[in-house]
Specification:
Two copies of one chain form a homodimer. Chain A is built from three helices and eight strands. The first copy, chain A, is α+β, with helices and mostly antiparallel strands and 208 residues long. The first copy, chain A, has a six-stranded antiparallel sheet with strand order 3-4-6-7-8-5, covered by helices on one side. Chain A has a two-stranded antiparallel ribbon with strand order 1-2. In chain A, strand 1 and strand 2 form a beta hairpin. The longest helix of chain A is centred in the N-terminal third of the chain and has 27 residues. The radius of gyration of chain A is 19 Å and the shape is flat. The two termini of chain A are 15 Å apart. At the A-B interface, helix 1, helix 2, helix 3 and strand 5 of A face helix 1, helix 2, helix 3 and strand 5 of B.
């Protein structure tokens, strides 16, 4: 498990983002429509032919495997395929994580694609988001790779679909272990709490 | 939080599934291609116009909100929008959960859309899948609605992308609380373990 790709020039990274991010947003919107449509059989068959034609065009030039994590020449990580923050992953909300050094947070909106109980966020989606955000806090904003050791999640009540906020911070660091906490809140308060232990892997313990 | 929609006739449910499931699979394949494509700006712009046109056609006739959980007249739950098992949710792998009464399990394949560390499953995706599968075990195959109270997840090592298996079972039941356990395994053994407490909600405690 290594991050070995050649770094991408920062201007080229900006060009790629301008090209792919709006397209990914269009596919994200399609996911929502795919779940909610009541279109009839003929319309769905036509839509399927269109989608398959687009996919074939996209696949004519594609990387061999998954996206991985690429870096720019300025050292910024491009986790563009990530299922939580990836600007090229249509299944990511995506979270745009902000940080003041001590805490990191994101405000986001979850719709039909993230539903478990009717009108509520799937409990596992809350776990996915908290795992990611606690990991970001533990990795000091992505500067040090970390892996989740353990995470415990407590559901105080159902989390409604719609506008939400998540926040995470490190409680303490003990050698290679960082102890992080975090919450998801709706407009009336906290709905889910998480505690996690994150580990810095051997190969990342020396400065890059 | 209620399951109040009128039940769907079983034949109509089969017709809907035949119509929407292959289309959803096509959108799922598009998600993978969206992450991995290296197509140029003109091709991406053309692809975006095609996708937006399809989305507009789908949205011309759609339900007002998220999918929810519908039931057939035979009492089968149709969690078709669910992000883990939903046959109409392109972000779901989807898991096809089997059960022998005591245990439930699923074999599935995770690709680029589920990647965290390079070539490995995002820790939060493992949490999403385990939360769902432990919940299925605790709800006796979906017959009793349950909500996650707490879940603790332990990562033994990285989970590689590719062919995986997840399994869950109930360890014990104590009143309205079910204690469930589960694991994710790759070809060489267990990569992630989970323990969860699931709660039967008040409104579901009397027989339907």
């Amino acid at each position: 498990m290594q991050f070995t790709d050649e770094p991408v020039d920062a201007d080229e990274a900006r060009r790629q983002r301008a090209r792919y991010e709006p397209f990914t947003e269009a596919v994200r919107d399609l996911i929502d429509a795919t779940i909610r449509t009541q279109a009839g059989a003929a319309d769905i068959a036509a839509a399927q032919r269109s989608i398959e034609a687009v996919t074939a065009r996209l696949r004519a030039t594609q990387i061999d495997g998954p996206y991985g994590v690429q870096f720019t020449t300025e050292g910024d990580g491009m986790s563009w395929g990530n299922p939580v923050i990836g600007v090229r992953n249509p299944m990511a909300p995506p979270l745009r994580v902000e940080s003041d050094g001590a805490r990191c947070w994101a405000e986001f909106d979850l719709g039909a694609a993230y539903e478990g109980p009717p009108n509520h966020v799937h409990g596992g989606v809350s776990a996915l988001i908290l795992d990611h955000l606690l990991g970001e806090a533990a990795s000091a904003g992505g500067n040090t790779p970390v892996f989740t050791g353990t995470i415990s999640i407590k559901y105080l009540r159902g989390t409604p679909l719609g506008a939400l906020r998540a926040e995470a911070w490190v409680e303490r660091v003990d050698g290679i272990k960082s102890y992080a906490r975090g919450v998801i809140s709706d407009i009336t308060g906290i709905t889910v709490e998480a505690d996690g232990v994150f580990i810095t892997p051997q190969w990342a313990r020396d400065p890059r």
